[in-house]
Structures are given as C-alpha cells and as structure tokens.
Task: structure prediction
Amino acid sequence: MADDLPALRELFHSFFASIPYDWYRKNQLAGYEGYYASIFYSYFAALGLEIIVEDATNKGRIDMTVRYNRRIYL
Result:
C-alpha cells in the first residue's frame, strides 16, 4: 500500500469491477452493505493487516478500522 491511497482506490475499483454481473443481478445481494464490507474485510484480512470491525463508540459504530504502517484508516 505504501500510503498510496489513489492506487488503493484503483485496486478496489478493479476488484469490484471483476465481480461478474450475473452473481448479483437477479437477487438483492447488491443492496446489502454486508456484501461489500465482507469483500473489503476479506482483502485486508488476507494481507494480514490488523482489522477492527463494528467498533462501538459513544457516537455509533465504526464499520472497519485498518491499522497499517503506523496509520489508521477508517
């Protein structure tokens, strides 16, 4: 990742674009946040990064926190 957020964005764009349309066109799967959150979680977990999901705060929940290279991404 090397703190290159535009490259990470492009990587995720390519990753989502590679999911076949037929996998979700005849069902409601595409409308569920959990579907997309699972993809992000799987990717970061496969990289071995430190991940915290559904972290409760006094203002609600943080969907996902990723710690990498002495930085925190929400």
About this structure: Residues 33-46 form the longest helix (14 residues).
